[in-house]
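I'd like us to work through together how a protein chain folds, taking it slowly. To get us started, please write out a protein record for me. Label the sequence line and the structure token line clearly, so we can match residues to local backbone shapes. Once you have written the record down, we can walk along the chain together.
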Amino acid sequence: LQTLVAEGLLISRHGAGLKVAEDLGSSISDPLITLLESSPDAVVDYLRFRAMIEGECAAIVAAEATGAEIDAILDILNRMQTAHDAQDEEAESRLDTEFHMAIVEASRNVVTIQVARSLHELLLRFIARSRAVIYDDEKARAQFHSDHKAIGTAIKARDAQAARAAIHRHLRTVEETLARKSDEIARQEMAEKRRAWVAEAGS
């Protein structure tokens, strides 16, 4: 940590602990946001990176978090339920981000937390974009919601292995759903082009 402070990557403030330098956050997030918007392979890599980090954080939280930390995570989950029931997609998307960040924060690993905070904007945008893709797919929305409940249930039960597995299962579902939706969009665009070609040839 002292080396990171010396390099200007972390800022140490008396009485306020450590925080990631502001320009570091944007220097990491901005190019990744651009990359994820243009590369399906990068999306897969990002989700698998999250699975590695968040899976271990969920396991740590299930095993070691205080009751208050777990209650805070479950409170976000309850608010997600309310937003889901009300079909308030904007609120549910925001709470989705809060839920995943709360799990990382409760791990109490200062380096992991600071890296996650520096990537917060990336997480926020990725979740919003993913939910926009599945907004009209009731089955996919229900599966995402069920996945989050499973994560919360495992953490509440203090089952580290189940919490890790639930995170991995959820992010794998996200990966598969986005791939399927991307394929559907590609097929639809090709069908529209074919119709346009036929119409043009007929004229």
About this structure: The first helix runs from residue 2 to 6.
